[in-house]
């Protein structure tokens, strides 16, 4: 068989990681198999993290033969893997056509968290984000999203010598990697179905978190379909500043965002929204800005917690890290106002795996250079004021 024929045969096979249980059941029905076969197959794929049909021992031989002919388990394959001194691991996954995305595993005493990407690049253009500086190419498929968890869990189990499918290494999943998850809503929802299904990874809704820059209509759709824990990128307590930091605010200002948060809380697995707040030296780290945040969430009646993230500098950012004392004072003032607030630990900084540093490789198709020049011009007064405050 020639290489071209082999490639054509592989391309015609269905990638089973693209299906949630409903889709898998429909596909099995289409090849003459009963629904319980889909359940068995899902458990092999996601609980056992198995990709070899010959090892799926409780499947009928005839069914396994069909699977070999018609299907495959094809996660994205890592180009590189880096290990941090603190145990953090980062994979750069090839997603084709010169694009690659990053995933990060963060081990802690009481949990293991995997940060997953949902897009090749990001079109949101937030001033402080390394991913956004690369521009945007495309949404990831369901298989590319699920496949990051599939690959990482399999590798981590092998390294730890874990063979029991109930002994998961990854206990928490956060969709906080490259991209805006809610801009890729259909594929993200299918991936969430797999993560949450007892015949999939069986994670609780409290242990899966979707982060968003504030896409209001998509937040409502997420609440209707799969209301997992929600983290909202806030970064400012007024529209004027947030407009400069996050272009999305011009379309979905704070009043609309807070209203969407209130609606989400009606079905959320937790009784609060987590607000992510990247602290930028001289821009949004002043103590009077704490009072503005407190006033905002009280006025809008949004129960919340704050997660403060000291900015991690990267090339082309023109932004600076806040002083440690300023971060602690900011945190203390929020806590004194009765809002539970934490400072995110910097993990994997030595392998560029810290928050805001994920970059991967993106073949931009969104006129990045033009957009960055405009954004830089608009932010110039803000940056100059920050430098004067040094």
Q: Your description of this structure?
A:
The protein has 13 helices and 14 strands. With 390 residues, it is an alpha/beta fold. It folds into two domains: 14-72, DNA polymerase, domain 1; 78-386, Aldolase class I (TIM Barrel, Alpha-Beta Barrel). The termini are far apart. S-adenosyl-L-methionine binds at residues 179-180, 211, 233-235, 312. [4Fe-4S] cluster binds at residues 122, 126, 129. One of its GO terms (molecular function) is 4 iron, 4 sulfur cluster binding.
| Tally of separate domains | 2
CATH architecture level-2 label of the largest domain: Alpha-Beta Barrel
N-to-C terminal Cα separation, in Å? 67 Å
CATH topology of the largest domain: TIM Barrel
Strand order of the largest sheet: 3-4-5-6-9-10-11-12-13-14
Which CATH top level class of the largest domain fits? Alpha Beta
Keywords:
TIM Barrel; single chain; alpha/beta; DNA polymerase, domain 1; disordered N terminus; ten-stranded mixed beta sheet
Task: Briefly summarize what is shown.
The protein is of the alpha/beta class and about 400 residues long.
Topology, please?
Blueprint: H1 3-11, E1 14-15, H2 21-30, H3 35-47, H4 61-70, E2 71-72, E3 77-83, E4 89-94, E5 100-107, E6 112-115, E7 119-121, H5 130-133, E8 136-139, H6 142-160, E9 172-175, H7 185-196, E10 208-212, H8 216-225, E11 229-233, H9 239-245, H10 254-265, E12 273-279, H11 287-299, E13 304-310, H12 324-336, E14 341-343, H13 368-388
Parallel strand pairs: 1-2, 6-9, 9-10, 10-11, 11-12, 12-13, 13-14
Antiparallel strand pairs: 3-4, 4-5, 5-6, 7-8
């Amino acid at each position: 068989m020639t290489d071209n024929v082999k490639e054509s045969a592989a391309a015609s096979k269905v990638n089973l990681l693209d299906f949630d249980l409903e889709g898998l059941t429909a596909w099995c029905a289409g090849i003459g198999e009963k629904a319980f076969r889909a359940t068995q197959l899902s458990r092999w794929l996601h609980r056992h993290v198995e990709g070899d049909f010959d090892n799926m021992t409780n499947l009928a031989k005839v069914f396994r033969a069909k699977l070999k002919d018609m299907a495959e388990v094809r996660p994205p394959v890592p180009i590189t893997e880096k290990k941090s001194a603190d145990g953090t691991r980062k994979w750069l996954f090839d997603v084709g056509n010169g694009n690659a995305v990053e995933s990060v595993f963060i081990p802690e005493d009481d949990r293991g968290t995997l940060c997953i990407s949902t897009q090749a690049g990001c079109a949101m253009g937030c001033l402080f984000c390394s991913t956004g500086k690369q521009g945007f190419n495309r949404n990831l498929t369901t298989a590319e999203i699920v496949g990051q968890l599939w690959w990482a869990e399999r590798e981590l189990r092998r390294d730890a010598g874990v063979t029991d499918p109930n002994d998961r290494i990854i206990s928490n999943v956060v969709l906080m990697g490259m991209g805006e998850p809610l801009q890729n809503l259909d594929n993200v929802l299918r991936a969430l179905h797999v993560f949450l299904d007892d015949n999939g990874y069986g994670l609780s809704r409290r242990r899966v978190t979707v982060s968003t820059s504030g896409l209001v209509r998509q937040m409502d759709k997420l609440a209707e379909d799969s209301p997992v824990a929600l983290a909202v990128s806030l970064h400012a307590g007024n529209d004027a500043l947030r407009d400069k930091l996050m272009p999305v605010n011009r379309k979905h200002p704070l009043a609309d965002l807070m209203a969407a948060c209130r609606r989400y809380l009606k079905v959320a697995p937790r009784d609060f929204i987590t607000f992510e707040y990247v602290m930028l030296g001289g821009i949004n780290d002043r103590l009077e800005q704490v009072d503005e945040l407190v006033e905002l969430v009280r006025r809008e009646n949004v129960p919340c917690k704050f997660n403060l993230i000291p900015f991690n500098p990267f090339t082309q950012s023109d932004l600076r890290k806040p002083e440690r004392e300023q971060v602690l004072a900011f945190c203390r003032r929020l806590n004194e106002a009765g809002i539970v607030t934490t400072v995110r630990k910097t993990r994997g900084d030595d392998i560029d795996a810290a928050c805001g540093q994920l970059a991967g490789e993106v073949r931009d198709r969104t006129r990045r250079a033009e957009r960055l020049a405009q954004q830089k011009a608009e932010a110039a007064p803000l940056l100059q004021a920050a430098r004067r405050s040094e």
